[in-house]
Each structure stands twice: as C-alpha cells, then as structure tokens.
Design goal:
Aminopeptidase; binds coenzyme A; alpha+beta; 2 domains; single chain
Length: about 325
C-alpha cells in the first residue's frame, strides 16, 4: 500500500480520489452527496499561494486506485496552532485497518507541517447523528470531541408571504441599521470593512475545545475569495448591515449557490459584531440573501446551514426561519 499527496490537476488521480469521497457520501446519505462538487475541491486545491489550500492524499495499491483518501487544509498565515483535515475510507473497504493507516499518515504530514494539533471534521447523515463510525474510530485513536455542530435544512422556496411576515416582525427592532445586499463582488467602498468582518468571524463563533484566532484579511483577500468562489462555479449572495449613526458596517451574511447544481444552497458566514447584537440583524440579513436567491430564480430546493450546538442565538434564527435538523458535523482533535 502506498500513501501520497495527489496532484489535483492529474485527472486520473483526482477522479479516483473524488470517487472514494463520493461513495462514502452516498453511503452516508443513501443518495448522492450534498458536499462540494469535484470542481470545487479542485479550485481549492491548486493554488499553493492561497491563504487556505487543500492538500489531497490517497492511500491504496496505487494513486489511481485508492481505498482511502484524506485532505489537509493548509493555512498560510492563520491559526498555525492546528490544522484541519478529513478522512474517508471506501465503504467496501472498511474495517481492514485502512482508516487507521491513513490517519497515521495524515498525522505525520501535520507534524511535518509543524502543526501541533490535528482537527478532523466528519459529517454525519440524518440517520447517524451521534452514532456514525467516526465515534468509535476517532476515540480509538486518541481523539476527543472539540466541537459538535448540527446541520439544518430549510426547504426552498418558502411558503408565500412567510419571509415578508418575519421581515416585518424583525425589522421593527433594527431601525438604527440599514440593510444592504449584493451578488458576487463586494462594492469597492465596502471591501475594507468586509475584510475586517471576515477576519474576526472565525474567532466570534463559539468553540468548545479549539482556540480559534482571528484571520488575516485585507481587500485583496476578499477579492481572492470572490474569485475562488466564482472558479468553484458558485454565486455569492451577500447582505450586510450598516449602523446609520456611525456609518460602520457591523454585520454580514453570505449564502452561496452553485450555478451548475443549484438544488442545495449553502449558508456560509453570518456575523453580527458583538455590540450590535440583539436587534434581529442575523435574521434580517438571512432574509435579504434569500431575496437575492428568489430574484436570481435559482431552482434551489433547500438551504443547508451548519451551527455549533452552542450557538443558541443563530439556531433560534434558523428555527424561526423554518430550518429543521438534517445531520451533524463533529470536529475531533488530537494533540500530536
Ligand atoms: C471512520 C472510518 C474512517 C473508519 O475507517 P476503517 O478503515 O473502517 O477503520 P479501521 O479498520 O482502521 O478501524 C480501526 C478501529 O476503529 C474502530 N471502528 C472503525 N469503524 C467502526 C465501526 N463502524 N463501528 C465500531 N467501531 C469502529 C474499531 O475499533 C476498529 O478496530 P477493529 O476493526 O479492530 O475493531 C470509516 O468508517 C469512514 O470513512 N467513515 C466515514 C468518514 C469518517 O467518519 N471519517 C472520519 C473519521 S474521524
């Protein structure tokens, strides 16, 4: 058996790598996976100079025929105390030690990259919340749960009049703020403020056992994020809140939808700066991005969102919007 990093530009290696991931997702969901499409993995795996780039690894008799695959997300400047990864064993090849062997190799790569902690993210389908194979496997290898997240799906489109009703109810609490929105490129005059919000976002979400720091963002990184998302074949539907008195941008929310496979839209970041919380801005921003989804006439069937189980305010907003539990995502950590 051989373990090696694959070249995402090599069609045979990449397709074999993605095949294992795809069969693993199908096995979990009982249907084609909801995760990133091949072009999206590729778009995030080829630019070595990017602030975050995936390294893709295969394990098997040859790189064209892996039995297990993994990924590590290498950050250039941010959160160097840990590295995030994932691992999938082909469903027909499980319980033969391949998962353990691949995990040991990923740990060796993390050490080589001088990251003292490996955080492995795992998605569980609706039928395996809390009981996926990861629970025994990760514990067996000395990992502990660092974060429990729940995935919720919101059926789309919403019943007629529902978004208007919620907007009218919530907007009364937010008279000090102006809600604005755009698709794809951030208006030039907002790019610096947007970069600041993206920088603090990772540190502002609740984490149990991972010490996540703010990231390094500037206008150039915002533009790069927009370009990578476009390269992934996705549109970015963004809303933001401006504090009327100070003119400051104090909140933003990002919904993304694939132009080729728009059935599932994904909620990405939503952040309201601490001192501006409690004005229903989170819910209003989400409705504003849904208006863009409506206006774009995407044939979307659901919006998926993932929240830490500790994030009570965001979960309350999602439930009020009508989102319902559809799966989980666990982060396992091991100090190497
Ligand atoms: C979890 C996963 C990676 C395990 O891969 P694998 O090749 O089957 O694992 P191994 O054969 O190396 O198993 C090692 C040990 O983990 C435990 N384990 C693995 N799968 C298990 C399961 N389904 N139920 C109970 N224990 C399990 C066992 O202790 C096993 O040792 P044993 O077979 O001698 O009893 C695989 O099921 C998978 O790809 N799942 C979906 C993605 C995922 O969860 N990835 C991240 C894991 S942190």
């Amino acid at each position: 058996m051989k373990f090696a990093r694959i070249d995402a530009n090599d069609d045979a290696q990449f397709e074999a790598w993605f095949g294992v991931l795809q069969r693993s997702e199908r096995n979990r969901e009982g249907a084609p996976g909801q995760g990133w499409h091949p072009d999206e993995w590729r778009a995030r795996s080829i630019d070595e100079t990017a602030p975050k780039v995936f390294r893709l690894y295969s394990y098997g008799p040859s790189l064209d025929h892996p039995v297990a695959v993994g990924a590590l997300e290498v950050t250039r400047d941010d959160n160097l105390a840990f590295i995030e990864g994932s691992l999938f064993v082909d469903p027909t090849e499980r319980r033969r030690g391949y998962g353990s062997a691949t995990l040991a190799e990923l740990e060796a790569c993390a050490r080589e990259l001088r990251r003292p902690t490996l955080v492995v993210f795992v998605i569980e389908g609706s039928g395996e919340i809390g009981v996926g194979p990861n629970r025994s496997f990760a514990a067996h290898h000395g990992y502990r749960v660092a974060e429990e997240n729940v995935r919720r799906d919101l059926a789309w489109p919403r019943p007629k009049g529902e978004l208007d009703r919620l907007w009218d109810e919530w907007v009364a609490c937010a008279s000090d703020y102006e809600i604005i929105w755009w698709t794809n490129a951030t208006p030039e005059e907002l790019v610096d403020a947007r970069a600041h919000l993206s920088a603090i976002m990772p540190a502002e979400t609740p984490h149990v056992d991972i010490d996540v720091e703010a990231e390094h963002w500037n206008a150039e990184r915002v533009r790069r994020h927009e370009a990578t998302t476009d390269q992934m074949g996705r549109d970015l539907l963004v809303s933001a809140a401006r504090h009327r008195a100070s003119g400051e941008l104090v909140a933003y929310s990002e919904l993304t939808v694939s132009r080729d496979q728009p059935q599932t839209a994904y909620q990405w970041d939503t952040l309201v700066v601490r001192q501006h919380r409690g004005h229903r801005l989170g819910g209003l921003l989400k409705i504003a991005t849904m208006r863009l989804l409506e206006a774009g006439q995407y044939p979307t069937e659901k919006i998926t969102t993932i929240n830490s189980t500790l994030n009570t305010p965001m979960i309350a907003v999602n439930e009020a919007l009508g989102a319902r539990v559809a799966g989980a995502m666990v982060a396992w950590r091991k100090d190497l």
